[in-house]
Amino acid sequence: MERTILIRNAKAIVTCDAQDHVYYGADMLVNGPKIVKIGAKLTDKYDEVIDATDKFIYPGLVNTHHHFFQTFVRNLKTIDYPNMTVPEWLDKIYRIFQVINDEVIYYSSLTALGDLIKHGCTCAFDLQYCFTKATGKAAVDRQMEAAKLLGIRYHAGRGTNTLPLSEGSTIPDNMLETTDEYLEDCDRLIKLYHDPTPYAMARIVMAPCQPINCYKETFSETVKFAREKGVRMHTHLGEGENQIMVDRWGKRTLDWCSDLGFIGDDVWIAHAWELLPEEYVTLGKAGTGISHCPAPAILAGMPILNMKELQRNGLLVSLGCDGSATNDSSNLLDSMRMAWMMQAFYSKERGGCITPYEMLKIATANGAQTLGRNDLGSLEPEKGADLFMIDAGKLELTGTLHDPKNLLTRTGVTGYVDLTMINGKVVFQDGILQNVDERKLAREGEEVCTRVLREPCEAFHNLD
Fold first, then answer.
1. What's the 3-state SS for 379-408?
2. Mind spelling out the 3-state secondary structure of 267-304?
3. Do 246 and 110 have their domain in common?
4. Which domain holds residue 337?
5. Position 220 confidence tier, pLDDT thresholds 50, 70, 90
6. Do 427 and 366 belong to one domain?
7. For a Cys-Cys bond, which of 67, 329, 374, 409 suits 356, CB 3.0-4.6 Å?
């Protein structure tokens, strides 16, 4: 039998719904995985009560681009990303990626997902493209295992790279697969994990890593197979590869993808730093979304997306942390703040800045829409009970409480939230992950990182 939870006496509930409702001094009734009611002094029966006095409640954040496995290649003195060229970075980082095994995948995924949960993320997408002899084909399975243990909704992007170095790829040959291998494993994963029903905890996305590192057939067959199976598609696009594509194919990356059918409202792309204004129009008409990842854009000195222009062209923009090799963090609250500050920097010459609240909706409602989740992204009856709370009674927030909609992004609330609920279950509260022995997992993960990566891997030479 599904349990009913009454969240009582919230100072404010910021819904991020279509009408941008904010409820003050309100209760929320949750039954099983979904929200039933929001209102003042609800009298319905309940099995459990959560006291939300002095709390602001927000919809759970939705992360639309990440690479969990990279959490074990963070904070490396030998990989100083801001001071390296892209070829230098690739040479260093791919030597490490080649020895990652399924243990690293599992514990690095726990690390990233735990970080996301602690900072209010309730639904996460990851593009897993690290498939080698060391990882085997179990990478997504281990990620699903980690997500289930922590209790977070997980959309797994089954990535691949198929083009060898000898034909212009940047990927080492032992990180390649054939298109048939990739499609076969996508079929296995969809049958095993993809749940298209409302409030689903797991879904599969077909996500060839990059056009420059795949054969044309990898993308065309992805389009055919994904639409046959009813799953979404994703890739990296517009992050510096366009000249390579023009030299190789005589056309820019978006045109290449469009010709293959890899465009539409079931597709979203990561980054889009170097897209042209006319390409915004193309994406807007197609309904293809963009996952904006501010941290790597800043670290690499890439162009800052013009969100006002994207909005004018009807583009769906969501938010991603991106991989830890170019972020070192899985904190989507921090990414949200960073993204808004980036917009503010150029706001005068671009005709204004989006509001902090608009950035919150990009990280919630837009993220859910990007992943095809009309059951998530806002707090209203029949939506999934995915939310987080912050304590508005703390001294450091004094003087800000008149505007809970803009508060998070504008004032830089980027630390741990007070509570995270996913699918109607509390998974993080008062600084503690509820489903696991966190310190035990941390010890185990550190041992795996040392044994598999630090000690035996030549890619870590001169680390100290």
1. CCCCCECCEEEEECCCHHHCCCCCCHHHHH
2. EEEEECCCCCHHHHHHHHHHCCEEEECHHHHHHHCCCC
3. yes
4. 61-370
5. very high
6. no
7. 409
CA dihedral 250, 159, 339, 60 (to 10 degrees): 150
Same domain, 424 and 349: no
Confidence of residue 458 (pLDDT cuts 50, 70, 90): low
Domain boundary among 370, 396, 418: 370
351 in a structural domain: yes
Model pLDDT for residues 316-337, shown as the tens digit of each residue? 999 999 998 788 899 999 999 9
Distance, CA of 442 to CA of 462 (rounded, Å): 25
* One domain for residues 75 and 204: yes
Same domain, 149 and 232: yes
Does 116 map to a domain? yes
Give the Cα separation of 65 and 117 in Å (integer): 15
**């409202």: which residue's tokens?**
265
Instruction: Give domain status of residue 442, yes or no.
Output: no
pLDDT in tens, 61-72: 999 999 999 999
Mean per-residue pLDDT, 297-310: 88
Please give the Cα distance from 365 to 375 (Å, whole number): 10
Please state, in angstroms and as integers, the Cα–Cα distance from residue 60 to each residue in 115, 120, 319, 369, following that order. Answer: 14, 6, 13, 13
In this structure, of 34-38, 102-106, 233-237, 307-311, the range with the lowest mean pLDDT score is 307-311
